[in-house]
């Protein structure tokens, strides 16, 4: 009896150096492009300075955005256009309550060919739909580990694409 292969629902990467983080961002961007359709919601969690904005910057570069990508801590939402996607980079670090997301018009971003990248989603608990992919960045003893977990059918498809690409690179 032949075994059935199941798509992975999570994958982890050692991204201790910035180059590895940039490669992962480019791989993630390629996976998003391969899906071809949105919206795609990705949340990023990790301590202050763990590399969330660095990874978002790498994803945007992977989609073809040539400009700078500042942390949207004070603006809360920075919009971009790249690779045929409308992209919202949201930083919930300073959010007081999940209902504050309504003032950002985030609900309008949840349709069409849109990529929504949300840092500090725990500060918006209850105000966000289920993320397609949840990314957790951890720093332990000068080592950065980035875990990606698919939480929806679309998220699991992204994880499978990323795992396949990472296997081809490794």
Name the descriptors.
7-stranded mixed sheet, alpha/beta, 7 strands, 4 helices, disordered N terminus, 170 residues, globular, 28% strand, single chain, Rossmann fold
Could you explain the architecture of this structure?
- The chain is of the alpha/beta class and 170 residues long.
- It has a single domain (23-169), classed as P-loop containing nucleotide triphosphate hydrolases (Rossmann fold).
- The chain is 29% helix and 28% strand.
- It has helices spanning 18-35, 52-62, 101-104, 153-169; strands at 10-14, 40-46, 77-82, 85-91, 114-119, 133-140, 143-150.
- A 7-stranded mixed β-sheet has the order 1-7-6-2-5-4-3.
- A hairpin with a 2-residue loop joins β6 and β7.
- α1 crosses α4.
- The longest helix has 18 residues, at 18-35.
- It is globular.
- The two termini are 30 Å apart.
Question: Topology of this structure?
Answer:
Blueprint: E1 10-14, H1 18-35, E2 40-46, H2 52-62, E3 77-82, E4 85-91, H3 101-104, E5 114-119, E6 133-140, E7 143-150, H4 153-169
Parallel strand pairs: 2-5, 2-6, 4-5
Antiparallel strand pairs: 1-7, 3-4, 6-7
Helix pairs in contact: 1-2, 1-4
CATH architecture title: 3-Layer(aba) Sandwich
Q: Which series of helices and strands comes N to C?
A: EHEHEEHEEEH
Coarse shape: globular
Q: Span between N and C termini?
A: 30 Å
Poorly predicted residue ranges:
1-5
* Number of structural units classed as domains: 1
Instruction: Count up the helices.
Output: 4
Considering the protein shown, what is the CATH homologous superfamily?
P-loop containing nucleotide triphosphate hydrolases
CATH class: Alpha Beta
Taking the sheet with the most strands, its summary is: 7 strands, mixed
Strand content: 25-35%
Mean pLDDT: 85
Radius of gyration, CA atoms, in whole angstroms: 15 Å
Helix content: 25-40%
Strand order of the largest sheet: 1-7-6-2-5-4-3
**CATH-defined fold name:** Rossmann fold
- Count every beta strand, where a strand is a DSSP E run of 2 or more residues: 7
């Amino acid at each position: 009896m032949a075994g059935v292969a199941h798509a992975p629902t999570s994958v982890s990467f050692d991204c201790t150096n910035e180059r590895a983080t940039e490669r992962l961002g480019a791989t993630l961007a390629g996976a998003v492009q391969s899906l071809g359709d949105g919206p795609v919601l990705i949340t990023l969690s990790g301590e202050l300075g763990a590399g969330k904005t660095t990874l978002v910057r790498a994803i945007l570069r992977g989609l073809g955005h040539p400009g700078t990508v500042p942390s949207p801590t004070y603006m809360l939402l920075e919009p971009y256009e790249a690779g045929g996607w409308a992209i919202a980079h949201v930083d919930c670090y300073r959010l007081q309550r999940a209902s504050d997301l309504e003032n950002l018009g985030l609900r309008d971003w949840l349709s069409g060919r849109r990529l929504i990248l949300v840092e500090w989603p725990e500060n918006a608990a209850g105000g966000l739909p289920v993320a397609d992919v949840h990314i957790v960045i951890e720093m332990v003893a000068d080592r950065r580990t980035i875990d990606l977990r698919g939480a929806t059918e679309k998220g699991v498809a992204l994880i499978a694409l990323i795992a396949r690409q990472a296997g081809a690179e490794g």
